[in-house]
Amino acid sequence: MHTGEKPYQCSQCGKAFSRTQDLIKHQRTHKAFSQNSNLISHNKMHTCNKPYQCSQCDKTFSQHINLIKHQRIHTGEKPYQCSPCAKTFSLSSTLKIHQRTHTGKKP
Questions:
Q1: In this structure, are 94 and 60 located in the same domain?
Q2: 31 lies in a domain?
Q3: What percent of the residues of the chain are helix, what percent strand, and what percent coil, each to the nearest 5?
Q4: pLDDT, mean of each 10-residue run, the chain (107 residues)
Q5: Which of 33, 54, 67, 96 can pair with 38 through a Cys bridge, CB separation 3.0 to 4.6 Å?
């Protein structure tokens, strides 16, 4: 019988569940983030709230930093440079992947 009652509440965010196993599954989402502010920031991606809009193509983002990274597509800015070969990249993560070509390390 479905009563709509949700007696099992998350102590970290207050979200409530009707079954204990759903609460336990939900609580795992909090373990992946070292700070609650990081979780809150991450959860913004799952909502429709995307207040940051690109003036070039109208794409929207939930976080300002993601808009800044996106705008590099339009500006061609590549602020991350590889020391050994001087190749440049728009994202630090792409530079790190590229640097493996010099070290031979695999992910």
A1: yes
A2: yes
A3: 45, 10, 45
A4: 81 88 85 76 76 93 91 96 96 92 80
A5: 33
Closest to 40 in 3D by CA, of 49, 20, 72, 69: 49
In sequence order, the β-bridge partners of residue 1 are none
Q: 22 in helix, strand or coil?
A: helix
Q: How many CA atoms lie within 13 A of 89 on its CB side?
A: 14
Query: What token pair was written down for 59?
Result: 């794409």
Contact between residue 71 and residue 54 where contact means Cβ atoms under 8 Å apart: yes
Cα 22 to Cα 39, 97, 98, 104, distances in angstroms: 19, 37, 41, 43
**Domains in the chain: how many in total?**
2
